[in-house]
Amino acid sequence: MVENIHPRQVWEALQTNPQARLVDVRTDAEWNFVGIPDLTAVRQEPVLIPWQVYPSMQVNGAFTDHLRRAGVEPRHHVYFICRSGVRSLSAARAAYAVGFQHVYNVADGFEGQLDREGHRGAASGWKADGLPWRQK
Hints:
two-stranded antiparallel sheet; five-stranded parallel β-sheet; single chain
């Protein structure tokens, strides 16, 4: 079972739970041009593993292997984030299917849902909540 968690709750978990990890499943292009969560205040780096590979956007068939190679273990509480919360939900479900028991989806992702003008980043999500982020 994958639970949707509000970005502020994820930030709190990263601050208080030494077993918490944030896995950003967006593409290289998104990390480079949009930015990444800045976890220096909690002495961590986000784990960057694309769920889909740019530019073909095919699902990364080795995703769970990459997760393990990055040091993320089934005992960790793993929070998955993408642009809007869709890809990260799929990634969390895949991790759960191979034995990761504490998996969560960051609701609204890094940039959130589209606002009235069709833009992301101001209405909801990690950035809109004022959580730390930086350009890669």
